Write the C-alpha cells for this entry.
Amino acid sequence: MSAMRFFAMTSAALPLALTLFAPALPAMAQQKDVIVEQPANTDSSPKQRLDQLYSQLKRERDPDKASSIANQIRMEWNDSGSATINLLMQWADKAIEEKRNPAALDFLDEAIALKPTYAESWNRRATLNFVLGNYRKSMADIEQVLKIEPRHFGALSGMAAILATTGNDDITLKAWERILDVYPADRTAQDQVNTLSEKLAGNRT
C-alpha cells in the first residue's frame, strides 16, 4: 500500500474550485506577510456534525456504508472555518499535485501558524513529510493532529505506517487497533490487525 493510502489523504474530497486558485500562487509567494486570519466561527454545528458522523462510523459494520461516512468526515476535516486557511490548504494541495514540495510546505507552515488548532493542516504536512521520507517530522505532526482530534483515523493510519518501518510488530498492531476502535469497518486496518496478530501468535509458539 502507498503512503498516500495510509494517511487517507483527503485530496479526493477537495472542492473542484482548487484549480481556480493556481493563478494566485505567485502573488501568494510575494504577499504572505499580509495574510490576516479571519475571526473564528463560533458556531458549534461543525463539531456536532463530526461527533454524529464519528458515532455512525463506530456503529457501522458494512464497509461500503462506512466508507461513505468516512468520506463525509474527510469533507468536514477539509473545512477549517476560515476562508484564509482554506485558501492556503488549496494552494498547498495544488503545489503537492505539481510536485512543488517546498512551496507546499510553506503554505502548510503558514496555515499552521495562523490556526494551530486546525488538525488537517498538521495532517497534510505529516503526509507530505512522510512522502519525503522525513518520518520523525511526520510523526511529530501526527502527534499534534491526535492532540486536537484523537479520532483522526487518517493520522492514526499514518502513525501505523511509520511504526511499521521500525519492525516492532507489537506497537504497530496497537496502532492499527486504535484505528479499528474509531473505524471498525476499515478493511485495511482489519487486514493489518489479522496479519500482525497471526504473525505475533506464530512467533510466540
Remarks:
- The first helix runs from residue 3 to 7.
